[in-house]
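Question:
When you can, review this sequence-structure pair and walk me through the tokens.
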Amino acid sequence: MHLYRELTSPTVVTHSVTCNLSSEEESLVVVRGNSLLQVYNLKPVEKVGAHGGDNLSELTLETVRIASKLVFVAEFPMDGYVVSLQKFRRSDYPNDLIVVVFKYAKMVVLAWDSKTMAFEPVSMHYYEGDLPKEHFFNPEFQCKLSVDSSYHSMSLLYQHDRLAMLAFPVLSDVDVLEIPFLPSVLLNAVDLDVFCTNIVDMAYRHGYAEPTLSVLFTPKRTWTGTLGLEKDNVTYIVVSVDMQRRRSTLLSKISNLPYDICQIVPLEESIGGTLLLGANSIVLVDSLQKTGVNEYSSFESELSIDLNQAQICQLPNTSHVLIATQAGVLYDLEFSVYGKKKFKITELTDIDKCFQPTTMSCIGSNLFIGCQGSNAKLFSWSYAQINGTSVVVNDPVDEIDEIYHALETNNVKEGKILFCLDDELASTGPMGALTSLGDTLTVATGYGTSGGFTNLFKTVWPIHRDRLSLGRPHNIWGLGSYLLASFATESRLFRGPDFDPVTVGDFDLRNPTLEAQLVKDNRIVHVHTRGIATYDAQFTKLAHIEFDSEAVIAIASSDVIVVQFEGLIRAYNHSLTEVSASQGQDAIGAFGTQMMSSQAGHVMIGSSDYYFGSFARFVSICNEPVLSDEPVTQVVAAKLGDNILANNVLAIIIGDVLSIYQPSGDSFVKVFATTVGGDAVVVPLNISNYQVLFVTGRHPHILMKSTASPIRCHPFGHRRVVSITTLDTDIVYTDSKYRVNVVSLDEALDYTTSEWPHQKFTLGEPISALAFDRNTNLLLAGCNTPVSREALLDNGQPMEGTKPDASFKGNTFQGRLKLVSPDTGYVYTDFEFSDNEAVVSIEVVTLQMGELADLREDFVVVGTALLLNEDEASNGYFHMFAIKEVHSDMKGYRLEKVSEELVRGAVTGICEIEGGGVVAGQGQKIMMRRYRDVYSIEPVAFYDAAIHIEDLKSLRNLIAVGDAIQGVSLLSAGVEPYRMDLLARDHDFDTKVGCLEFISSEDRNDLHIAIVDINGRLRIDQFDPDTPSSMGGSHLVTQSEIFIGRRVNAMTLVYGEGKSLVPIGGSTDGVLVTVEPLNEMDFKALYVVTEQMADKEQSIACLNPRDYRTLGCKPSPQAVIDFRAAQNFLMLTRDRQLHYSRKLGQHGLIQVFDAITRQSFDF
């Protein structure tokens, strides 16, 4: 029984679209990691930047300008793999709708509900039913969606030659049809043209009154090796489709286009026509379906632009088209709109590179670029000013456009475009190699010059400044540079930074303090058990009142002071004049805070009989029907955000669950929920540039949010926090031993991009392998820099048939080994390998210095691959280094090469076994080596795998091997004598292994292997010789299988609960994943509720989470619990939670909460 958990959310932006969801103001809808839908708005802010040159070819940044910041609105995880995202508008909806296309021909139309801040499904269109019956079904084919610019129809291309066209009625047809959409029209490629087959791309043309489709297809397939027989075989056609009659009319056809043309880019009316893109070619087809030679072609051919997988976007109402290549370079295609259309290409050199772009969208005067290899970026663009004005020309109307009534008048701006970086969406992807040291998980991230490594931490570890012994205070408050502490019979005031006890002004310290706070005009409000007093900044008393009876609880906000006595609640303003309040019976624990909004009023709650202000209104409008019957521990109204934007939120603790609500119109929407301990208390704090919520108790947490991120909840330290406050820029808290700790947060960490705080370091090149040296606490990073490949023979002469002066050359990699400080990113030394030698694997191993010696020494073992020509054998090197300390004025380290060995095959995996041996996977062979003498090693045993090895991991003397065809094998290694024997193999594995790792638990005395294949399936195999299906232990028994939908590139072992070892993997889209053992009691509780939720709860896009998690998986004896589905249980209303947990018995709800709490805190 196991639990699959995504420790972090995806950060790589894969799709984006701009649309009007609720008003005329445009929003940005993005998809991260093909599965997380997010909505952003733009907020104008002032930004200071450097001033560029006066030349129009340079980037100009004004000193102070208005920039746009991305403001996070909402996010929705989806149980599907998104392949396309578009917008369109229907006559019966006032705002834009979005259409999301999933893998396997599934399309869902969504509308935004501004009241609930969520998407509602409008229609669902599934075309996947007959796909497996096709003779040549390709399950990995990526569907393509195109939407008509006039929003009359949309077309979905699936399985190469199948088209699904969906038409929407226009305004004049609504009364007649009274249906939201017309029936889908399913067409084959030959229905468009008799020669149409092998469709490459399709898109709707702009400016046509009727749906007009452009199609690229290849009647005869070819590739580079058959160009001598078949080339220039791409055909481009334009057809007009009559949706009602199910007919198409061929308007034009262009044949014999270059074989690498693969993309259609329809241009808006400001330019007109269509761009056809190939690997290194751009073809412009104008509105008259004519092509011609561009007069700038001789100049532009020298650019050698690689357009494979390039992203293209036309700036609205301009004559400029932007191209972002996979290398991160941006180009500007500037069109001339006078007479015959022509364009010239300019490289934008003064703009930040966007490596491996995945999407481009224009939102007003901003350009958004989503990237896989770097952060997603938001630019603002404007025209270069010439004598204070921009150049504006009138675009002549083409004859064909006049016929179709597409254009009447059109003002098109021409001139130089300037770009300024406004904002970024930080990304921790793509994740490559992983390694861990203590509480730090280091992951290789980024691509190109943005490549480097990222240190991730599950827990916020504060920087300790001081620890004080001030007695045993019950609570503490920060008042500027003073610390007020409440004790059993009195209060004490301390002045920082020495924290000496002081008595200042008229401040009354004779009674225990209930509340103290700095409010407006630097006024201090002090509430103690016998009265209330207000003071100025010098602690001079301004006003005070005495209580007739002893107060038990008090809350001070920016406008009101609420005090609870035995059986009575009173409220006062800052002039200490009593205002009306509700009364009731005795309340146990009443908490409240600041004014949330003028509409909501003040909030105070003790039990179901006590409320002050608008809490009763909150109960009725937030859809919590049984909330009043539950023990409400605390209600807090506060702000959560940063110095740019802080949102009003309402935090409620009911039992062990903390829920965060956000006002939306005249109601509240639950936006976050998590489990907390029974002694938890929420305290609003201002820390650095953030307004946060701190949860005290046995499991302290800190809730943070930035302008562009959702709410993040981080564990805080490892000690229980009793009370907490801020003092100047520091955090002061008391622990379980009532010691006062003065700490601060590390401002170098990013707390809001991901669920794990992290710090990113850039090395300027991508990292392929990582390892920690525990003696020096240094990081070994293997980097591979892309370089141009020289096709040379062994004698240095060029290969026959190659062109030494060719513009395009093949790429290869230059390997380097860097010794880096993980705390600062400082590179101590950089070792460069030979030409065409790439680093594949690194491991730090401890070897025994000889068979009779007890001395052991650590070495760095590096496996490389020689990237040679196609017809040459693949070889590699086995390198061994020692880290030596450099004694100089500044402490340093260097790498000393111990030995190297040329081996047959690339060294794809290295691991260490007990007894001082090192095992390497090289090609189709596994070799064990040991230390011999004088810094040299020798092979002592081998195992012939027969298949190319993909991954290699060890646990003590066990070795797990993943290959390209036969799946997974388990070997045992011995040192006396040296040997490797096959124990078991997974005979039912039919897909290439991506990565693997062990799962071990000493308490359960079992051994599992977690395997992730290249198709995103997670498989858990068990080695259990006592099971009959294991055939005496020769077969690995498959226990569970689940589809995770992510490409996991690497895995490493970390310590889980108790003495268990669990794997953590990093995916291409920036997600940390893990799978861990689950006890039977927690498995039963989570399984019962998640299965019911999968059947009865509606997902964001009407997708079935159970079907998604079993996609392509074979039936297995045990299920795997998806922890994200279990966490969704906390977002349900209390009556739904009780309904689903009733099957577990009378205390079923408590069992579910306990299971979620254990899995949240024990990892």
